[in-house]
Amino acid sequence: MTTNRTTTLLPLGFVLLWSTGFIGARLGLPHAPPLTFLLLRYLAVVLLMTLLALATGAPWPRTGRQWLHLGIAGLLIHGVYLGGVFIAISRGLPAGVTSLVVGLQPLLTAVTAGLLLKERVSRNQWLGLMLGFVGVAMVVAGKIGTGFGLPALLAALAALLGITLGLIYQKSFCASFDWRSGAVAQFIPTALLTGLLAWATEDMRVDWQGEFIFALGWLTLVLSLGAISLLNWLVRRGSAVNTASWFYLVPPFTAVFAWLLFGETLSGQALLGMGLAVLGVYLARPPAKA
């Protein structure tokens, strides 16, 4: 009973935490360029997780190959995905459209995992993935606007590819690692690359308002430490397809948080879409073991 409860509550906890990422971006991006914002976040994570790993005696990757694999996974999941999302939003792509583009991830993961990992996707899982995507589209349809350019859309597509390939790469090459030292290995190369890009393309000026400090702290502690740790747990315990299916619940939960914090309305269509997304995740769950 405890195991079943854990396998349900921890993924839901991940969804709840991950869903606040768009809220944090909305609060912080008016006060700093996107890559500069992310660089500060990554550096804070490296510092905190290094101290935690040293204080708790966490085991570190033992070979250069392990460091390399963790670094590549980190660049894809954190650098490309988060960088793409933040750049897309900062360039005017509505958060709803960004969510919808990234919402293609479970379907793309199913196709890619079948080709690269030889994972079998059942008929019920395909149905769940389709229903989940329809549900996500219904949730964000009312938020889709105009006025964004091709660079913003390309950034969102890059984020989609980053999170999809990153999860599959981590499942293939980094299935088992300590969440404390592993985070350091993932975020160091991500911070280095993000810093170089920020230096080359941004003025790196930060308006240290209370709103920005809160957003930076929230995204560092809650997202980069809490949610990423739960994501690593999901990758270790489930298939790539099942792990990705939980991302269908992120836009609906984000819509709820936006309603609670910013007064954004929730239509009947959005509520129906949330129900379809939940049903899709249920159908995409791993088959019961005999």
Can you characterise this structure?
There is one protein chain. This protein is mainly α and 290 residues long. It has one domain (20-283). 78% of the residues lie in helices and 0% in strands. It is globular, with a radius of gyration of 18 Å. The two termini are 16 Å apart.
% residues in beta strands:
under 5%
Taken together, the total number of domains comes to 1
Counted beta strands: 0
Q: Averaging pLDDT over every residue, what do you get?
A: 80
Distance between the termini: 16 Å
Q: How many distinct helices? A: 13
- Helix proportion range: over 70%
Low-confidence regions: none
Q: Given the helix and strand composition, which structural class is it?
A: mainly alpha
Q: Radius of gyration, Cα only, in angstroms? A: 18 Å
Order of helices and strands: HHHHHHHHHHHHH
Most strands sheet: none
- Spatial shape: globular
Protein topology:
Elements: H1 2-19, H2 21-28, H3 34-56, H4 64-90, H5 95-102, H6 105-116, H7 123-141, H8 150-173, H9 179-201, H10 210-237, H11 240-245, H12 250-262, H13 268-283
Helix pairs in contact: 1-10, 1-12, 2-10, 3-9, 3-10, 4-8, 4-9, 5-7, 6-8, 7-13
